[in-house]
Amino acid sequence: MMLNVSVAILCTFLILVAVYAVVARSMLAAIISMGVFSILVTALFVVLRAPDVAMTEAVIGAGLITAFFIIALDKTSEP
Asked: What's the confidence (pLDDT) of residue 3?
């Protein structure tokens, strides 16, 4: 019962963050919201008892990909 509630709450937040990433006016805000999306997916994997997948998602999804996108944004932005 508690597992279903926590999964439902996390999925609701995932949908809200994904919609915000699409409608955000700032590219940096969209990148940060996708990082938050990865953190929420990590939490969902932990709740679903998949710690190996959660650890991989945290390192690659929330860490490296967000950093690469921010670096790319910094390199391509006009002064």
From this structure: 82
